[in-house]
Amino acid sequence: MSEAGSPAIVARGLCRRFGALTALRPLDIEVPRGAALAVLGPNGAGKSTLLRLLAGLLRPSGGELYVGSAGNDRVARRREVGLIGHATFLYPTLTARENLLLAGRLYGLRDGGVRADRLLPELGLAGAGARRAGTFSRGMAQRLSIARALMHDPSLLLLDEPFTGLDPRGAELLGRRLLGLREAGRTLLLVSHDLSRAAALADRALVLARGHACALAAAATASPEALSEAYRSAVSRLEGASA
Amino acid sequence: MTARNPATAPAHPGWHRATGLALAACTLVWAVLVWNAPLDSVQGVVQKILYVHPPCAFAAYLGFFVTAAAGALYLWQGDPRWDRLALSSAEVGVLFCTLMLLTGPIWAKATWGRWWSWDLRLTLTLLLYLIYIAYLLLRSFTEGSERTARFASVYGIAGAAIIPLNYFAIDMAGGRSIHPENLQRGSLGAGMAAPFAMAAVTVIVAYFALLFRRMEVADLREALARREAEAADARGEATSWDT
Amino acid sequence: MRVFAAVLWKDLLTEWRSRDRVVAMAVFAVLVVVTLYLAAPPGPVAAARTHLSGLLWVTIVFAAVLGLGRAFALELENEALSGLALAPADRGWIFLGKATASFLLLGVVQVLASAVFALAFDVDLRPIALPYGLVAALGGLGLCSIGTLFSAMAVRTSYREVLLPILMLPLMVPVLLGAVHATAALLEDGNLPAGPLRLLVVSDVVYLIVSFLGFESVLDE
Question: What is the CATH number assigned to the segment(s) A9-241?
Fold first, then answer.
């Protein structure tokens, strides 16, 4: 259920160059609060670049970007955003709880301990708080990194290929968890290779190819084949646009 | 669709002709003056290194100063042209620094009987040389033109801030200055002022002549990289990132 | 400010869990002292004082370079450095946190190295302990500030272990010379000379400013 109010993401002419290469061509999008956007595209399309721009890790080469209540300011943007990537950002020699406490301090939270103690059981890590993060399995580590991203209660969650490396059951659980987060009112942005999972979670999609972007014009309820077809034609259209 | 990008346009060829001619002219005048300069009664012909060695110092230090300033401008404005200037100046500057380190010992051996001495100026030159080398190594070991530019700029600025400190440090440490003082005090012997001044002018002109040519090479490389990236784009190849 | 405290706490805690940096630095320092002694046992001449302080500081510089090289190595695992970069604060505080942690670790190693050095070269540091401590702290500060900045750069390049000393050493000369001469004077007559001390302080200030401001550009993409 999306709330009325200011959109979660507004980008105008957002672009990013690396030396001679333009990883992301000027992009205009608007994502309302509470929506779930899937970002799809082949390798090297610029998906990670977009994500890192949104997270405030990358400086835009041009354009404006507004996330949540933050103005066009990277430091404020980082407060609004939680990033869950394929890297976990965890320190293996620190315990799970300590990793969360560190995140709490980095975000200036006073009640870090309380939040950590609440999040650990919520993500199925109740008994593992005192264990070193280095001993965690991939699934547990990912859950911990989700907890870490949630510590400062961000309005926008960015997920970079979160299903990679998970077994089907783990992926299932993650999908349900993400739906739960969405229902709680957070805005999600999901980068994924997995078309079907992305479609299951998202209510809109953006296709990127070689830095160009376009919205995917297919209903979320479309069949997997129709979805693939729409995706493939979008990609070839975008790649043709580079000429 | 490829708009003419001022960042990759090569320097005006007029500059090349001008500096090239100026250099040729200066060198001619310099050679004549040096040939006709009086022979030092004590040191003989070797003394004429005065017309090569100290002037190179001007170019070596100018080169590093330009590198550092260009780096600062790059960090401020983000224009890759500044970084190309920084790199070009570093390569030209290190050339003159090498010349200094080669001519110094030649003169030292002839005059003091030793190839090397740890006096103030030689040590400073050596340190400047090592800083240049470190700068160039940093550039070659870093991947990604944008990251390289950033790192190099920071190192250049650090170097420029610390080189003056090096002077005080070695001075304090009592670098025995057996370097001829009168050269720096300006009280040159009769008939030596003109060739020395000419040498200084020639070296500065040489520096700029080489700098412009090196800049053009850098600009051409950049234009080539850009064109290759666009061609790969048009051919339908996934562009690999310049990271 | 809290980012500084957070990073410092994290670095010290991590180090406490594994103690590998401190142990490596300490062992290396002791080995260097021993090697220096074996290579050149000092003669009974007072002129050796400057050489002695030089040897001591060479040991410390090498140990510092070793430790600083490791400062960012841990951050690469799991891209933890990006995790820090996500914090909504000035990157300069991350720099301060890491530099302070390195400074404290180096301090521990300095105490050990100085003690071993005093034993090996038969020098009594106790009467000059306090002023020497000041010089050691100022020297360590210079090393760790610039060293942290360059370590952050070097860790993203190939040949990172070799590159850090190449970047650091030519720019370490003011701190090194200031520390060596101050220590030599202390060993000589117990007095803290103004010249080297001034050089150390000025250098430290310059280094701190350059590193704090430069770190933003190094960490930022």
Answer: 3.40.50.300
**CB A60 within 8 Å of CB A12:** no
Quick one: tokens of A238? 């975008």
Distance CA C68, CA B144 (A): 24
Chain B: residue whose CA lies nearest to C160 = B141
* Confidence tier at A2 by pLDDT (50, 70, 90): very low
Helix %, strand %, coil % of chain A (to 5): 40, 25, 35
List CB contacts of A40: < 8 A, sequence separation 6 or more: A47, A191, A192, A193, A195, A198, A205, A206, A207, A208, A216, A231
CATH topology of domain B16-179+186-225: Four Helix Bundle (Hemerythrin (Met), subunit A) (1.20.120)
Sign of CA dihedral A173, A176, A182, A188: positive
DSSP conformation class of B45: G
Yes or no, beta carbons of C203 and B165 under 8 Å apart: yes
Question: In this predicted model, what pLDDT tens digit does every residue of A43-86 receive, in sequence order?
Answer: 777 888 899 999 988 888 888 888 888 888 888 889 989 999 88
Average pLDDT of chain C?
88
Q: Where are the domains of chain B?
A: 16-179+186-225
Least confident span in A72-76, A167-171, B16-20, B202-206: B16-20
CB atoms within 10 A of CB B17: 10
Residue among B12, B13, B33, B17 at smallest CA distance from B202: B33
Residues of A in contact with C79 (CB under 8 A): 85, 87-89
- Chain A CB within 8 Å of residue C82 CB: yes
User: C150: closest CA among C86, C59, C64?
Assistant: C64
Could you tell me if B243 lies within 8 Å of chain A, comparing CB atoms? yes
Structure tokens at B210: 């080489």
* Rounded Cα distance, C12 and C21, in Å: 11
